[in-house]
What does this fold into?
Amino acid sequence: MDLFQQYEYTALDRFLTYVTIDTQSDPYSETCPSTEKQKDLGRLLVSQLKEIGIADAELDEYGYVYATIPSTTEKAVPVICFCSHMDTSPDSSGANVKPIVHKNYQGQDLILPDDPNQVIRMKEHPDLAHQIGNDIVTASGTTLLGADNKAGVAEIMDFANFLIKHPELKHGEIRILFTPDEEIGRGVNKVDMDRLAADFGYTVDGESLGSLENETFSADGEVLTIQGVSSHPGFAQGKMESAIKIAGEIIACLPKDRLSPESTSGKEGFIHPVAIKGSVEEATIEFIIRDFNDEQLQAHERILELIVQEVLEGYPNSGYSLQIHEQYRNMRSVLDQHPKVTALAEEAIKRAGLEPKLQSIRGGTDGSRLSFMGLPCPNIFAGEHAFHGKHEWVSVQDMQKAVQTLVHLAMLWEERG
Ligand SMILES: [Zn+2]
It folds into this structure.
């Protein structure tokens, strides 16, 4: 029996509304949420959750939405959390998004009407080859779409709607969490873990149909401060040691054909300078260091320090300091202790008629930090593609498959939990 045969999905309609609400986050803001406008979507989600019949839905002062789908079983079952983020990336405008549904896609170029130079082509987006006959949603050419992660938000909302409409289906207590500020690395800064009180979680923020990610980068930030020697440039012979030039030499010594974002893929890590400023007297370079393996991460950090030391040998009166701060860690080490969390998600993807694809993310998710905060939390596909840019797209059919996957997963935890 097909659970979903009679069901009228609500994910697309919801999605088309959510993307029109500008929820861009701002890395330069110190408040939480970083932008008040994120609460506009939070408030809408709370009112829609209440319409669905979820009485305890609430938006808190930091912009987090919490809600509970009550249990329908007598069994004691772990509490499962489904999480998506409401903000969009600061990399591309999220204001006045005009979503377009391209029905029954046949492999053609998708020309975005508000800027005809923006064309989504199958050869640049190979996943489109699997979308023939589907309905593709894009933006109109001047903004991102916001499928990252409003596709996930819409899918979780539709999933909640489905479960409430089908009280005969057995599942344990389900917690819904929508976060602000994920795109600026602060998605879980103010999450109230006691209020959440969940045992295991899933972010719904992945890419291709059927994908499941149980591994993220481990990530550190490093700030290198170089102290040079300043003097009057007319009388600097034999004295001046310019911090600007030292910084330039260090950057020039970084590996180019390996250990850089431009030259790595798969499981390879990198050392990446992201900002630089300086004067003759002092210069600072900010780096991000990434790897899937914590020991490799530290090895990259040693390589960087060796480069710095070697360059500074040529500048006997200059000095440096290197400050390392942890950003997040590979969630795999936590998830390996709770194999059921990933295994049941794979099973749910199969029950939705898909082939599960276990992958690692060359980045982080809210789940990488949640996993270390006591909520083991892999990432399930939401169907979002080409995120953070004007070519972003998602298909309606992939969104519906994500809804099915979440429903099967809730039921599986009741069966096997
Ligand atoms: Zn995302």
The pocket of zinc ion is lined by residues 85, 148-149, 182, 205 (CB under 6 Å).
